[in-house]
Amino acid sequence: MANATDPLVLIVEDEPAQLEVLTYNLGSEGFRLAHASDGEEALLLTQEMQPDLIILDWMLPNLSGIEVCRRLRTRPETKQIPIIILTARGEETDRVRGLETGADDYIVKPYSVNELIARVRAMLRRTRPGGVGEMLEFGGIRLDTEQHKVMRDGKAVKLGPTEYRLLSTFMEKPGRVWSREQLLDRVWGREAYVDLRTVDVHVGRLRKALNADGSPDLVRTVRGSGYSLDNED
Ligand code: CA
């Protein structure tokens, strides 16, 4: 659940399927969300809500994403708000045009949800220091969400990006049992076509990395249900 202090992301997207994917994935990352489905509404809501970041589709009815971006940049009260443009176009000239108009980043559809989230976080870190950084601790494991670093009993643990996201999911709610489907949604994104056994493989790698020094295994396999992080045997 998002808190009032969590970053507010305005999603400007006219296609329902795209919107659903964004809403689901950003929502489960703990962002507060607002939505506009055309350019005019985007301008109004931005003025009204002062979001921390805008994800802006290029192809919109009435007013294009580029035009929205240009107008937001000319207004003193909105010109600082970071904008990530989404587009199906991949031409280098379009990219340049998007960035020249004042967008801060540019993502081409179809994109990986994880990459989008990573870019959203990176941008919020730059513009909203401390807003998303957090230290999670459990059973001697420390996870620094700002630096993306993990320590166990004071020693650095090297994790791949997928294992890192798995661990951060577990550490948000120690003791909670996550089904493999839920982990798939959270870590890979709902759009991903990933076999459930892939989850097992990455949990296995996470376990190995965490327990490299012969530390007790905190990743529990719950038969028939999934996985959790806890201290119980
Ligand atoms: Ca569109």
Q: Features of this protein?
A:
40% helix; Arc Repressor Mutant, subunit A; single chain; Rossmann fold; alpha/beta; binds calcium ion; 8 helices; 233 residues; 5-stranded parallel sheet; 4-stranded antiparallel sheet
Fraction of residues in β-strands: 15-25%
Please tell me how large the radius of gyration is.
20 Å
Measure the end-to-end span. Answer: 29 Å
Main beta sheet strand tally, sense and closure: 5 strands, parallel
Q: Ranges with pLDDT <50 over ≥5 residues?
A: none
- SSE sequence, one letter per element: EHEHEHEHEHEEEEHEHHEE
Structural notes for this entry:
It is built from eight helices and twelve strands. By secondary structure, it is of the alpha/beta class. It has two domains: 8-127, Rossmann fold (3-Layer(aba) Sandwich); 131-229, Orthogonal Bundle (Arc Repressor Mutant, subunit A), CATH 1.10.10.10. The longest helix is centred in the middle third of the chain and has 15 residues, at 113-127. The chain is elongated, with a radius of gyration of 20 Å. The chain starts with 7 loop residues before the first strand and ends with a strand. The model has no long low-confidence stretch (mean pLDDT 85). Calcium ion binds next to loops.
